[in-house]
Amino acid sequence: MVMPEGMILTFFNSEELLMPTPTVINQWRYSDAINRRSWDNRYFFDDFSTMPVYAGNTGTGLPTGTAGDLNTLQTGFSNFQWNVIGTQTLLTPTWSSTAGINLAQDQTAAEGMELSAGFSTLTDFQYTVGTDNAFFLKGQFKTDDVSGCNPLIIGFRKLAAFNATLSNYTDFVSIGLVGTADPNTIKIQTQLATGGVTTTDTTQTLADNTLVTFEINVSSAGVVTYKINGSAPTVTAAFTFASGTIVVQFVRLVQAADIAPNVNCNYLECGFQS
Hints:
Helix content is 4%, strand content 39%. By secondary structure, the chain is mainly beta. The strands form two sheets. Strands 2, 3, 4, 7, 8, 10, 11, 12, 13 and 16 form a ten-stranded antiparallel β-sheet that branches. Strands 1, 5, 6, 9, 14, 15 and 17 form a seven-stranded antiparallel β-sheet that branches.
């Protein structure tokens, strides 16, 4: 073979072309402009910026308000389920373009809901302690009457059928408003293997009409830590889920005697920590 003058031939080893250099990796990584919701099916972020579609789990397909009933709330990004606590005459949460979804419903003492992005064995949003990487749950809320929420909490619980009584879940962690004080108290509640509920007062409080962000982080080994508005609580509680425990996330609101007309959830976020 005669090469034209000035031509240079370069030979590449096929393995060399596939070396995981930053240049090669960047050819295949997702663009930062692509939202994580588009490529991570075990992550969700929902700010409830669009009006949800509601449905029930009965033959009619309409939401129902009987104690224990399961209903569905679907946004443009996420599919949530909620179970009815007590009996609801206002059958769904209400929506606001400026305040997310209002979880208050018919505003009757001892009634409320438990909301989740899924708590069946088929949900993508279940995490196995000791197998999955570290994961988290975060939610932002605002209520016009904090003493009307007992509780308003976020948490992780062992995968199981819904129960209207929080302490009936064998294993769970939660953080949020617990009690009827005004300002209301922010507390951590935990239970391991039906060993009894431990309640820890963070000594922090929340006043009416104040935004608050609650966050729970669980390491791959099951060690749980908490944040309030991005910082660790003043007083915290040590807790570790047992290895092999499968957990799902939840938000729980039950109305106290004082009644909270507006309990707005501005956003929910859940997934692996990295």
